Amino acid sequence: MIELLARHSPGLPEWLTLCVVLYSIGLYGLLTRRNAIAMLMAVEIMLNAAALNFVVFDRFSTNQQADGQVMALFVIVMAAAEIVVGMAIVVALYRMRGTVDINQMNSMRG
Amino acid sequence: MSIIIPEIIVLATAFAILIADLFMNERTRVYLAPAAVAGLLLALAVMVVHTPASGALIGGRFTMDAAGWWFKILFMISALIAVLLSMDTLDGRARVRVRGMGFRGEYYSILLFSVVGMMFLVSARDLATLFVSLELATLPLFVLAAWRRDDPKSGEAGLKYVVLGALASAFIVYGFGILYGLTQSTDLETIAQRLAGERAPAFWLAAALVLAGAGFKLTIVPFHMWAADVYQGAPTPVTAYLSVGSKAAGLAFAFQVFYRIFGDALPHWDMLIAIFAALTMTLGNLVAIVQHDIKRFMAFSAISQAGYFLLGFLGAAEEGVPAMLFYLLVYIFSNLAVFACIIWFENETGKGQIEDYRGLSLSNPLMALGMTLALFSLAGIPPLSGFVGKFFLFSIASKAGFHGLVAVAAVNSTISLYYYLRVVRQMYIEPVDERVPAPGSSVSIGLSLALLSVPVAILGILPTVYEGIHAATIAWLASMPQG
Amino acid sequence: MDGDSGWMMQHAWLIPALPLVSFAVVGLLISPYWKKGAGVIATLSIVASMVCAYVLAWEYFTLYPAGGEHPILVPWSFEWLRYQPGLAANVGVLVDPISLLLMIVVTTVSALVHIYSNAYMHGDYGFGRYFTFLNLFTFSMLGLVVAPDIIQMYVCWELVGVSSFLLIGFYYNKPSAVAASKKAFIVTRFADLGFLVGVLLLSFYGYRIFPDWSAEVGAVANGLAGTQPVDFQYLNDPVFLAKFAALDTTFLGISLLTLSMCLVFMGAAGKSAMFPLHIWLPDAMEGPTPVSALIHAATMVVAGVYLVARLFPAFAFSGTAALLVAYVGAFTSLFAAVIGTTQDDIKRVLAFSTLSQLGYMMLALGVSTAEHTLGYTASMFHLFTHAFFKALLFMGAGAVIHAVHTNSIWEMGGLWRKMPITHITFLVATLAISGIWPFAGFFSKDEILAAALGSGHYVIFGVAVLVAGLTAFYMFRIYFVTFWGKGRGAGAAHAHEAPALMWMPMALLAVLSAVTGFFPMAEYVHLGEAEGHHGINLAVVIPATLFALIGIAMAASLYIGDGHRAVALAKMLGSVHQTIKQKFYIDEVYLFITHRIIFHRIARPIAWFDKRMVDGGVDASGWATRSGGRALSLLQTGQVQTYGLWFTGGVAFVVLILWSALV
Fold first, then answer.
1. What are C116-130's pLDDT values in tens digits?
2. Which one, B198, B473, C178, C471, has least CB within 10 Å?
3. What dihedral do alpha carbons C68, C70, C71, C73 form, nearest 10°?
């Protein structure tokens, strides 16, 4: 059973494809969602895809220093920090404007 | 150990302010800004007097070099002036109160955290420290941009900044991931060695992602879009800090990326850099012409200035690096001088349109003079320092054979003269607006302007500073691993 | 510099720096608030600068006494801009006899004009602005004089042009003043184009020859390591000149050395108003009279002469270029003198007289060669004396205009009784310019004539003697008409003496005009071996003095007395009068050439082209720039998702470019 899984377990290309797909979903979400919170979620997906990228490369790397896993941890922490700041701003904006629709936040342009 | 002391001092000051704020009342909180200034001055003094120009800590993950020394000095000077410029607004000394600018302890400590991030950024020699310090430098800026909680514009600026900043971070970190995958290392030197001669498609994808991130910080077209809205919406002292600190950090990051990671491939990217330089200065200049809000105007001016910086990457590093560092120095002084006047004027009158500055030369000639000097320096009028800085950058591009680009840059300089003169014209030629009461004066802003005007006026004439930077970068390049 | 050189020598930069600081302080801080203070501070700064110049001269000539060797020193300089290693533009101060001479002339005349202006411009609108510009001019002129390299010279050259433009157009609500300032600026700018090309040629080939040169002369061993390819010391070096002249490259059969020298001379001719680039100077009299005294008589217009003198070894080496200088100078001198006899505006007569005297200086430079350098000394000597008596003439004219409120000599007359001091000083200056012993002009003119004769240029000598006579004639003509006879205009009746602040500088200049001729110039300014003052050369003195006396006699016979006597005299001397009329005809030709041909045939089409095409083009480009900005600003939609899209698109673009660059 384990052997079977090992033989059919996805290799580097499959994992990388997953990363790219996740990343693209995030990017697409960021560029299309009108809800500010949804946009922040999309960014979170992108950052997590990048973190996954590190883990994948670490898993398939020949040297066993776990640098990639450490990187992934940092990325997760940083992503959380960014989302915290972003959410705080969204909440403040919601209190002022009563909406989180990003299309209405265009008072400065030109 | 001694190479990290300035960072520790700034960090300790930041925490000390944050904690002291808890035990202080409104009256005693006016001492927070002097405390921040004192901390930065101490760190600067330690840096100048004590810190050696080279050294390494934590197994080479935190290092010090001559170019980094200059960068750190510039970061601290920017922050120092930014604190001085924020004082009036935060302490409520402005004649026209800016509402929602409270929480002084948090404000100054967050500002200092950002400086620490920038300082770590130039010392990073590892993907992890590079990324974390970049985020540490940037995240506080998101917060500062959205500082005025009851101002929708400030909030909007913060939201735009955080969304696009996070997007840029995602691009950078994905690029880093690919680099890690290609080289199986997070050490910059090892990455550069293993990348030498690399031509795989994954390599240029990674390069593109990282370059876009650097372009975001440096406000290179088309990664510049955030700058205008954020500069306009953020509280003005924050804009002042953003316009210089963030740009300096962007240049430091670009140095790390170009000279440490992609040093081997850099000569092949001349055309790319030239295209971006031309696009950036042209777009920044053209759009600046039609602006009315002075902060937005300065945003486009800052974008076009970023285009001039890029010229320095075209030639040999021995010439390009000192030229860029010198221009950064000049840009920081000139831009902060302009912002000193903008902040003072906003504090006194509550106005921020270019047309509001009319007759300033009569109501406050010293401020008008300082602003004129700084604007002329930005426009590159001899013999002010901006002219000399531009001259070095232009001559690098022309020596690298980009004569067309130099022509574009020269035309752009002319256009920029036109719009900088628009402001000067308002101050000197248009009659005074009688309805506006005569503006008063401010100690901290006047002091900052005086401190800034002197280098703006004389750096172009005294060659000492440039020679210092030149010598430092030669030493720095000699210490670089030859990829 | 070695340690034993004096304090002033090490701080020579103070001389141009004082007016610069004063310009900034007065212009930005003082003149908007304290009008009187602007004049006082501006004047004090120039006086301080003058004192510095005297101290510097004293130190220099203590170090290198008169009659001996006079090396070129650069006691203070730093590298300003470096284009590449071995090609840098320095800013510095060059000290040698001619730069000291010019420093003394410029600071002295400028100081006196500043003092005079405090009274002359009193109550004038733009009093502070006037002194600001005057300081700017003095700074630029001093910067030009002390320039150790041709780049600094060129920059200050343009600054001088700008300040001249600002001052000619000082009365900017007077259309003629605006037109004159534009004319002056455009004509000199056109000439400067030649100068610029000359500078570029010199520095380009100078840079290419530089390595050979420094190997051949052993630059490093001989302490010339700091020399730059644009320094005058290098450009005047015989080894360099020989290499430059020997280059195979030619242009229309002219050697490059001659070509670049001719181009440089074009700039000099523009600034010194040599034919045919002289047309701006008479019009420049629209500026305030003290400005005419300082800029358009004593200092700025001699910048061209100074430039030729500064590059004299190069001109002499070329030979052809020196001859061009000589003939252009001689022709201008005659041409302007002839026109001078016919003008009615007192300042215009003086302007043509300036042209004529500048021609004298140029011809003196042109006739001298590397072996026969008397003309070089003579030219500098005449520059020196001319500065004083011509500034005095303008100040006198200014005092008269101030008193009678008109420029026309026919509305003056009989002023000697009402303005005794002005009269005496004007007479001294008139005698000086006419070359009457023992006034200053006699000695310097004498030396120029001796140089022309000694070098074998007999035609030029003849022209110069003739011009001496004409000069005496037209100067005494205005002297008699203005000061003698009876008052003709309403203003002349109510004339009064100038205030003390005005007549005191004039009195001082009168003393200088009377005595500076005895100054042993050859001891101080010379090339190679000092040639002793040649004493009285009868072959020169007799014809020159004779012609001068004839000129005075003719002026006396025609213009002494009131209008009635002049008419009677004209009838009596019918044929002589007709001959003088012929000279009016030359004036008409001159007007015909400038107005009919240049303005109508050339300027009109150009103006049309300018209006329709050039201005249209400029407007269109301005419009296009603004519309471009407006269109591009539409990209900034304020929508964060658009920004994100641009960002992503940018990444794709980078990928594409990298792909095309690396594959």
1. 888 888 777 778 888
2. C178
3. 140
* Tally of CB atoms within 10 A around C246: 11
Distance CA C536, CA C538 (A): 6
pLDDT at C2: 46
**Residue B115, in any domain of the structure:** no
Q: C40: Cβ–Cβ under 8 A, 6 or more apart, which residues?
A: C118
pLDDT of residue B433: 66
Phi, psi dihedral angles at C636 (to 5 degrees): -80, 80
Name chain A contacts of C648, Cβ cutoff 8 Å.
27, 31
On whether the CB atoms of residues C302 and C272 are closer than 8 A, the answer is: yes
CA C266, C267, C268 angle in degrees (round to 5)? Answer: 90
Residues in chain C within 8 Å Cβ distance of B171:
647, 651
Q: pLDDT tens, C405-415?
A: 887 777 777 77
Of the given ranges (A19-33, C52-66, C271-285, C457-471), which has the lowest mean pLDDT?
Answer: C271-285
C252 CB within 8 Å of a chain B CB:
no
- Residue B232 tokens read as 């306009």
* Residue partners of C607: CB distance under 8 A and separation at least 6: none
Q: How far apart are CA C286 and CA C18, in angstroms?
A: 28
Cα-only R_g, chain B = 21
Residues in chain A within 8 Å Cβ distance of C645: 31
Query: Residues of B with CB below 8 A from A54's CB?
Result: 176-177, 180
Q: What is the mean pLDDT of residues C325-333?
A: 89
**Portion of chain B with pLDDT greater than 90, in percent:** 53
- The minimal CB distance from B204 to the residues C629, C646, C658 is found for C658
**Proportion of chain C above pLDDT 70, given as a percent:** 86
Question: Quick check: C79 and B463 CB within 8 A?
Answer: yes
Q: Which of C32, C84, C650 sits opposite B222 (nearest CB)?
A: C650
Fold of A2-97: Helix Hairpins (1.10.287)
Q: What is the pTM of this model?
A: 0.68
| Interface predicted TM-score (ipTM) over 0.85 | yes
A35-65 confidence digits (pLDDT tens): 999 999 999 999 999 999 999 999 888 777 7
What pLDDT, in 10s, does the model give residues C272-288?
888 777 777 877 888 88
Number of domains in chain B: 1
Q: Using CB atoms, which chains have 3+ pairs under 8 A with A?
A: B, C
Asked if B271 lies within 8 A of C83 by C-beta distance, the reply is no
- List the domain boundaries for chain A: 2-97
DSSP category for residue C295: I
The count of other CB atoms within 10 Å of the CB of residue B27 is 7
Nearest C-alpha of chain C: how many angstroms from A84? 19
In angstroms, rounded to a whole number, what is the distance separating the alpha carbons of residues C112 and C436?
A: 25
| Model pLDDT, residue C566 | 56
Task: State the average pLDDT over residues C326-348.
Answer: 83
Closest residue to C655, CB basis, from B204, B287, B383: B204
Chains in contact with chain C (at least 3 beta-carbon pairs closer than 8 A) = A, B
Higher pLDDT, A61 or B294: B294
CB burial of residue C224 (10 Å; 0-12, 13-18, 19+): middle
